[in-house]
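Chapter review: from sequence to fold.
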Amino acid sequence: MTAFFALASSLLWGLADFGGGLLTRRTPALTVVVVSQTIAAAVLGVIVVATGAWSEAGPLLWFAVAAGLVGPVALLCFYKALSLGPMGVVSPLGTLGVAVPVGVGLFLGERPGLVQVAGVAVAVLGVVLAGGPQLRGAPVQRQAILLTLIAALGFGTVFALIAEASTTITGLFLALFVQRVTNMAAGGLALYVSVKKGAAAVPEGGFPWASLPALAFVGLADVAANGTYSIAAQHGPVTVAAVLASLYPVVTALAARGFLSERLRTIQAAGAGLALVGTLMLAAG
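The token string follows.
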């Protein structure tokens, strides 16, 4: 069961990342975040009412609120990085967020093994190579690398927080709902401030209503991935769940290769691969 739900998470996250990154190439990233999360919150609200999950309300929901405040920042940075591309480099770097749960474990008294120490070194080398020298092929802007690393830190923090927000399935529904409502409020406030400063909330042609199904898919796939990951972690070793769920960049990279025909320089591909390997070593150590 752990393997099944963790692999489902990697598939859903990979497709959500690809869809979100693609949408931000035509629509402002903040708008993509707010609309997709609003749709997800609406669907989760129905589920919470239908399952009576309100009975699970308690102090643990503050972890979901905190996750909801961090989430929009991470998503915004990640979608912006994906729009700068290429996805085959940005997405693997995003998996470095698994270092946060590892860090929490260290703070609680765990000690890193040799594999984890090696994983840090490999991941850092991967980050350096992924933004390699501008020779030929698809360039990776320094801004994209920085945004991806900020997003990775945010994602790892969200995973650690949401894992503490519930202990039951119905409690998970409520925690995810609270997280998404907070996402929506924080993202909406940021969008309002952005518009007041002169930024556009929608493309020149107006709101892309034709993209609404894609926006819905991104929001629902993201929340479903969070849910399946939590279930995987509750029914088996967190290490196994983290390793399998962290394979989602493979899905994003394959989608980018298949739909966008992205071509990477050898040094970029090597760096992205090393970052992914280092992440797996961190989680498995």
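Two observations follow directly from the output. Residues 169-196 form the longest helix (28 residues). The radius of gyration is 18 Å.
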